[in-house]
Write a structure and sequence with these properties.
9 helices; Spore Coat Polysaccharide Biosynthesis Protein SpsA, Chain A; alpha/beta; 7-stranded mixed beta sheet
Amino acid sequence: MIAAIIPVKALPRAKSRLGALLSGPERRALVLAMLGDVLAAVGAARSIGQVGVISADATVLALATARGAEALPDRAHDLNAALTQAAAHYAARGAAAALALPADIPLVQPHEIDDLIGTRMTARGMVIAPSRDGGTNALLAWPPLALPFLFGVDSHARHLAAARERGLAVREFRTPGIELDVDRPDDLLLLAETDGETETQRLVRELCVAERVMCV
């Protein structure tokens, strides 16, 4: 069984870098829309056995439950510690691997998740999908605690180094739906202009993000 883990910050703290473009309630709506899109993709992926959302935010956990995911209260209030908590939870349930996915990749498709998981090999290893800025937008580890979670600045390079230090097999995986994460105004503009009708795309178009970006 493979478990997907989606960590989400408390809503008042989420997407603060978009504060010049979106109000607090708009950022909250954006995070929940993106989480809904990611949950829909993960839920439709054939290779995922369990889905958990870990967060300290009650609204986020309620949405996870409503969408059929397991709600995991974040006891650590730290991204990497929360992922470790969730990975240990699923390892104790017999998960063979854990897939860590951020909640801000709203264009991810079920087949991309299945393709990523399909690249794994050997008994111990890692598949990593980098972001455009040197971060990590998906990390598959088998077994679930095979290496430390090192999300943050330059996490792609740090995850690669940690895997190699531990003698893990390593594969890199790139695909458009996972590569686009939403952190900056230009990301919202790209999201609005990309073909598709995800929940998040509908929201950013309703908010007239393209016009706002031109004025920032």
